[in-house]
Amino acid sequence: MPSYIDPHIHMVSRTTDDYKRMALAGCVMVSEPAFWAGFDRSGPEGFRDYFRQLTGFERNRAKLYGIEHKTWLCINAKEAENVSLSREVIKLIPEFLDEPSVLGIGEIGLNKNTKNEATVFRDHLDLAARTQELILVHTPHLADKYQGTRMILDMLRDDTRLKPERVCIDHVEEHTIRPALDAGHWVGMTLYPITKCTPARAADMIEIYGTERVMVNSAGDWGHSDPLAVPELIFELRARGHGEALIRKVVYENPLTFFAQCPRFQFTPRTAALSESRSAT
Hints:
- By secondary structure, the protein is of the alpha/beta class.
- It contains 10 helices and 8 strands.
C-alpha cells in the first residue's frame, strides 16, 4: 500500500487503534479540522480547551504511530447560528495560529444556509484574510448542498483579499465539483458511507475532471464513517487500471501541495528521514 494522507478526519472521535490501523495501511499524515462536538458547547472556554486538544494532545497521540497531525481552527457551521458566541470563539483563534501544526481556518461554511451562518462565515473569512491563512470549507449536506455551495462561492469571490487557490471546498459531489474548480479553488471529495461520496463515485469524478486541485478524505468522526476510506479509493482506482503515479498524486502529492502554501507547514517524508538517519550514522 502506498503512503497516503487523509486531509480531513476528526481523530478526537476515533480510538488510538484507528491510528494504528491507518499507519499499517500507509497513512503518514492527517489533517483535522475543528468540528462540532456532538452537542453545542456552552461558552468560548470550551473551544479554547478544544483548540488545546487539537494542537497538543492529538498531535502527540498521532506521533506514537508515525503519523503527522495537522489541524484547522474555527467554530463549526453547526454552532454558527449563535453569532455572539461565534465571534467570541473567533477572537480566540489568533492565540493558536503560531502553533506549528495549524494549517489555517476551517472547517468553516454553511449547514442550513441561514443568514447567521453566512455572517459567521464572512467573519472567519475576514480573519483568514487579515492573517493570510489557508481556508478549509464545509459545504452543506444533501438537499442544501448546491444552494449552499453557490452561496459560499459567491462570498469567497466577493472578498477580493482571498486567493482562490488558498481555499479548499470540501465535500464536493457530482453537482458541485465543477463550480468550485472553475472558481479556482481546490476541492475535497469525502468518502462517506451514507451522506456523501462512495469510492466508486469519487473515481468517476477523477476520471471526468482529472487530478488537478483534487483531494480525497474520509471525514471520519463518531458517526458511521470509515477511517480507512482513502485506501478504499486506492483499491478502486487500481481495480480500474489507473497507474501508481495518478494515485500518488491524488492521495499524497496534492495534499502536500495545498498544505505547503501555509508558511508553518513542515513535513519530512519517512524515506527522507530514514536516509538522513543512515547518513548520520
